[in-house]
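[Q] Does anyone have a clean structure-token version of this?
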Amino acid sequence: MKNDPIDRVKTGIGRIRISNKQLGWIVAAVLLIYFNTGMRAYAADINPAPAQLDWNTVLKHFQVDSDKFVGQQFSFRCPERTVRDSDDSLYGTNVYPSDSPICVAAVHAGAVGPDGGEIRVQLNPGIDSYVGSRNNEVISGDFPQTQRSIVFVGEQFANTLNPVQRDYAPRLKWKSKFTTTGLANIKLVGQQFVFHCPAAPDSLAGRRVYGTDRYAFNSYVCLAAVHAGRLTAEGGFVTVQMELPGGELKGSIRNGIESKSGPAGTRQLIFPLVKPPVAAVQQ
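[A] Here you go.
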């Protein structure tokens, strides 16, 4: 009888007969496991990684308390409050001056309890005045107008947010690199940022991008976003996340853009498949 091309596999207990059909199922199963594992690993990169705070850390610690970051959101993790922690001065209710102690404000607003946890903060323009109150055993005071403010992101804060992510998202050029945005601070690894790209110029000659799904830290943001499938030549809003290196960068051709292979570098960029949120108008 004619044997199949691959009909016997040696094992420690003898020989097992495998037909081409069976081999095909085995290969398909292995590829499915490999693909799913890879997708899970990549999906883990999509959620913003919260930066660890001390009890009274302020945004200035991350060098983002500046007008050019208005509209951006930042993910943090507050520690558990201990008997050694005292609350720095806090002003306002639900909307706080941008130099407020983040975790103290988070407890006051009800975004987190004294046991700590993850929060998301949006940097907004300032408001005319801040009215203090006593909430969740934290006391805040009154304060006059400031240039910038912070609010917390979540359904319970819908009427204290405003649509500044679209109004204030940095307007990039097609030659803008991520390293020129001011958001390259190593302390912001894992955070997500929203940018606006204009319509593409007639020629993109001379503009290179490195990587596939993960891109070089100094990439042209808009060009890499097109390659990643998160943007078209018409431009628009795009979300970028800075990550620690995940291996060597591999080039490919996608969406009419050819990327190059390159070294892993110190940090890399990914483009999460999320839409920049637009919150309710501030009351």
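[Q] Thanks! Anything notable?
[A] Residues 169-270 form a domain with the Ferric Hydroxamate Uptake Protein; Chain A, domain 1 fold (CATH 2.170.130.20).
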